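Example: ARM repeat-containing protein.
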Amino acid sequence: MADVSFLPTLPDSDVQRTTQTIIQISDPSPGLSAEALKILQNEILEIQRRPEAWGLVIPLLNHENPQVQFFGAHTIQVKIVRDWASFPENNVAALRDLLLQLTVHALVTGKLGVITRKLFVAICALAHKIVPYNTEQWPNWIVHCTEVFSRAGVQTASLLDFLAIVSEEVTTTDLIGVHKDNMRMVCKDSTPVVLAAVSTTLASGNGRPEKHVAAALNCFKAWLPFWTVDDTNVVLPALYSLLNSEEELIFVATSDLLQELLDSSGTYSKHQSAVGHLVEPLLVWFDARGHQILARSIQDGIVGNASHSACKLLVTLGENWASELCENIVNGTLMSLAPPYMTVLNQPPKPKAQLVQGYLQLTLGYTGLPGYFGVDEETSELTNSFWYLLQEALWEATWADSQSMIADPREVSKSVYVELVKILQRKCTYPPEGHGWLRDQVDRFQAYRRDIGDTLINAFYVIRDDMLGYFIDTLVNDISAQKTTGGGWESAESTLHCISSIQEALNYETTIHLHRLFNPTLIQSLPSTGTPRLRLTVLNLLGSYASWFTYEPPESSKIVAPAGPSKVEMLLAAVGYVVSSLPDPTLSVQAALALRDLCDANRKMLAPHITAFGELHDNLSRIPDAERSKVLQSISSVIEALPPAEQVHPIENMGRPIVQKLVDVLNSPNAPPVDTRAIIVLQLETLAGVARGLTRLSDDIVDIDDEVQGQAVVRSIHNAREDRGISEFREEILAVLGRCVEMAGHDASIGQAINELVKSITALPGDITILTLPAPPILSLICRALQRQITASWLALATTLFSQMKQPVPFPISGPPTEEKSQREAEIAQQYAREAEEGKNVVRQALSMFLSITLPFFSNGQKAMDDNPDIVQGFFSLLDAVSLNFVELLYELPENVLDAVVQCSLQSMALQERYSLIAACRFLAKFIQGSAARDSLEQQRQQFNARYGKAIMRTVLVGLAGVSPRSATPNLVDLLSALLVRCVSEAPRWLKELMAEDSLGESKAGPDEKEKFLKAVIGTKSNKKIREAANQFALVARGLEGTSFGYATASN
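Written out as structure tokens, the predicted fold is:
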């Protein structure tokens, strides 16, 4: 009998009251309110916290109510974990013996598993408190516990459950360093005992109760981190024998364990012995049993748990050993298994190629399970990842010619993927209309189709262009069959989806089949009414392949376009199909997107046909309002391909009605506010679409100071901008934009629409269009908007415009030196200096206005920052842009304004809101770095450092020491690094003074740690060394050194 004299003795009344409280909580009466229940819960937790709670353990465990018993087991675990520091050391052995006796009693008296498992966890918790620090106090604790349980006659299943929990608790402990190593070493030393218990149970197989075998499998799985390859090999024959079990629970558990072994990064990983012990036996087993399991699933019309698990095992094998499968795909050598596996599997030797190809056929079978995924079956998607990994392995495979090769491996691989493509095309086919699927079933099937698209890309890399030819042949046959029989379009839609999915993998230079696909005859044979799913897929296809129409293969290409319609004719047929779908509300979104893609990619080819787009504009009223912006963007992109002078009138004709609509709405006193806002947003979005369409393609964008042709293009745009009509139109846009800003007020939707319009209608100098608005008046509008209400969106817009005001440095003019070239370079330099100064003046004035508006907002103290983190981030992002492009302007600010900016930064760095803190750190780091990079700012920089440097350094150190969230440490370290590297003479002095002042809040860093930190960072310019030292200092200062949490967050 264990000694219990060290436990407090409680009056029976206290135990009874505690028991009644537990029962009330676990089974509350209907009349007990939520508030009363919470009071009871707090009361029981308070009882558990008291030192006397040790005395509750035995009475509670002996109670007849299982809920009370569980609380008793939970209490001893909690006391060990939380109150160990106050537990007398001379009573440790007595507590250990008592806990083991209580556990044995619970096991032999048949208490619920949830209670015995809690006691197992308590034993592990006690071991974690004793063994890592003094192994002699509880030598071989795992073996000791096992012997105690065995002598007491504890069932095998319970013993194995205990051992599984031991491994789980050791592998997830928060111990680190040598203490964790001590615990792991005990586990390592205990593996022979655990292995004997597991292997004995598994070896008897079906002769043992099911729960014993399941417990053995679970235990072996839990101990995977500690097994060696030899340990695992002892058990594998028994596992293969259990794979033949008719008990679903045993089969699934065995399969799961083998999957863990295959995935394990420890036991086998890519250990070569795994081929003989895992890969080859499993290939033989799948050859013998896998096809039977699949056939039974197909026959029964349902994939049961065992078949689903078999598929998972099949895929896991392939995912981890795809290269091994590739190597043997045509290897005629017989596969000879080791004797233990030959005995268990009892199969005659077969060629490796036969087994590998059989494996691939089985995987194809699961990929092509009958029925629709998400409705009839949930298994086929498991194989998708394997086909990707197999394709990668095939790419890397290098087959050496040998007599053992029975076929060409490339042809065999290709035939497998050809079969896969046929299966996937069938699997992604929708059922006929009226299928009655639920919304979530439709959503799952759509997601499955997207995943199939990725798998088809993998197949394309094996089959190449023949795959596209197969799809187009299938499509032609589907269209022909539909016309003949009048059936549905489901197969054609599926084929079109497949073609659309592989677009990104195609090389237009070598593809020969797309001329057939986009032949006007084929496009026109597709239905233009009804069949919305098919038409949506066609629209998506046309948008996906928009860039093909304008693609011209290089002269060296061996591909000759077949005779037939030109690409222009094909493009016009595609555009015509898209335009005909625009009025249909169910298709308008995808049609507008497809039209935008086609027009954007092929604007030069479509420009000669601009008249047709004029007709489209005239019929704009037939198109849903929400899609008109995309349609106008499409038309605008075609107009952009015209010479700039010819763009003016079409753009005016498109844009003026939009602006006039805005004016009418803004002037209307009777329109309901909701309708007014909706119309304003729609018109702003439409105008933004027109502006976006005029943006030139990246291939066509020229720098303002590029070669002669580029200069000519920019000059022609500037000349077109001087046109009186387009100049007045820009002024009208500015005027109506100003009125919209005034109306925006608290309406986020109008503000967002204005934001998008400004982004679309402003540009860098090299990307100017006839509609581009100058930044200064828009910045003035933003200032007016901020005066009404400070929002993050207005600040973000100002940040974008500030970045655009930085003039790009002109490229040198190519060619040999000449007087004309020198004169031109001088002119360019003068122009650059003039425009750079103009841009700086604009930013100077705008910055002054912005600060005069935003700084008073933050003058309310930290609460304003706490309540508006988005505004804080926007404010510092704006200053960030100034630091990056116009850092000298910050030094030109009045002294009190610059002081307010710095104080705001320091206040923000003291916030707990991570993103505000990070934004302030980034601004200060860029400001310090940008200042140091400009020699002309040396005097101002020194004055700034003298006034603010030490305060910034203090805020950084206080943040590292614990005020700031751990996730912001990298940004604080970056700022610290900027201070140390850019303020070489001052920063070491600040650091030493601050460390001596002991002014780092609740820092737990002592003198030695501070000195170590100073030595590590002072004098070094290595960001890496500063980062490592700062991270270590932060761990020490926060009291996290030596904890797994501390090191985990530091590594992150």
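Residues 859-1051 form one domain.
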